[in-house]
Amino acid sequence: MNVDRLMSDLEKKHQGEVEYLQAVREVVESIEEAYNDNPQYISANIIDRLVEPDRVFTFKVPWVDDEGNVHVNIGWRVQYNNAIGPYKGGIRFHPSVNLSSLKFLGFEQIFKNSLTTLPMGGGKGGSDFNPKGRSANEMMRFCHSFMLELWKHLGPETDVPAGDIGVGAREVGFMYGMYKKLAGEHTGVFTGKGLNWGGSLIRPEATGFGTVYFAKEMLATRGETLEGKTVAVSGFGNVSWGAVRKATELGAKVVTLSGPDGYIYDPEGISGKKIDYMLELRASNQDIVKPFSYEFEGIEFHEGKRPWERKVDIALPCAIQNELNAEDAKNLTDNGCICVSEGANMPCTPEAVEIFQKAGLLYGPGKAANAGGVATSGLEMTQNSMKLAWSREEVDTKLHDIMCNIHAQCVKHGTRDDGYIDYVKGANVAGFIKVANAMLDMGVL
Ligand code: NDP
To answer: What is the pTM of this model?
Structure first.
């Protein structure tokens, strides 16, 4: 594999697909050596077969708002690679969604799912629909319309979606309900389901919990713990909520949350009722974090700013892609931050990652650090096929073990001669080898 040649071919073929090209470059640069060391990968041309999705479905989603106006959005499902299991990956409703962002997320998902050691392939879907300010009835009509088209491409052994940005338990309920009606069967074709109809305990908090477990493992390599550490979290959605809960439980103090409007700073630490309020605010479908500063005394709101300007020991970016740039990375590093664990997918720009790694920070990329969400989705699928439900403790223990195992794989494949652990390389190489070997076993498909 020649990375420059591969990337220049892809840039010509997929012009303007910025996020997709960024994600592919990050992976191929770090697996280049492992790839070129194995003549079988080269002769089977694994890389050209891996960077293109198996297929992409595009469809229109017409829906009626509460005033009777008719709208049309676009829906997509990217089925990327199913070498090791059914396509698996969330559904995102956000105005920034386009083919490029879903291809980036689907591509990342292949390696993330492989790292969990569970049998899941990679996929992603979504729509450019904006949930902000939409009523529950509008959400229901949109989700039903979205599923009227998508359902025919799904199945418990074919393609199993889940939530993502803008899609929580309520939206999964609307989509799964429509799937069940059309398919005429109650199979676990979605994960992130409600507890009464096949969902798993711990799934809502799993991504954030896993991100903190991963940080805990990284810190342990330097004899450190979360106890007494100050933490900056971004976002105020599902992943941020889980991360704040677990970080607080393990003795850290979380001092920030953020939204597209700015960030809040709480010198006392976000705990107790403030964590519950995150759920309320997220459910209100507003796109602002500012209300925190009216609701609780002593919380400052910083309009148009990002939390990375604060002096913290640990940063957990949990909002959206490319939300932490080189300037932010420099601020964090200069202020003595020692660890960055990504709850979101690709929240740090490539320049930011370079700064972290050059400064010797512990840096855990999303495909490893946020794999706890999909891992627990895998556990939900297992419980659905066995037709039983595990206890909270059982699921949490399995999640914790999976995160420790992912960390160990990163250490195995990413430790440099000087002892620094390159978690990007470790995660990419470990995730890639399993998928590539499965593809070799099955021949050219
Ligand atoms: P949510 O929709 O629950 O939360 C996203 C949060 O980010 C919201 O609080 C949102 O605010 C905020 N946000 C959006 N844009 C910005 C911005 N520019 N600056 C600051 N905050 C912003 O989604 P999730 O928590 O589920 O997902 C968050 C990230 O985690 C995504 O990258 C997702 O792909 C990733 N992830 C999620 C998993 C899951 O299980 N849910 C699994 C693995 C990864 P607002 O609502 O106001 O837009």
So the answer is: 0.95
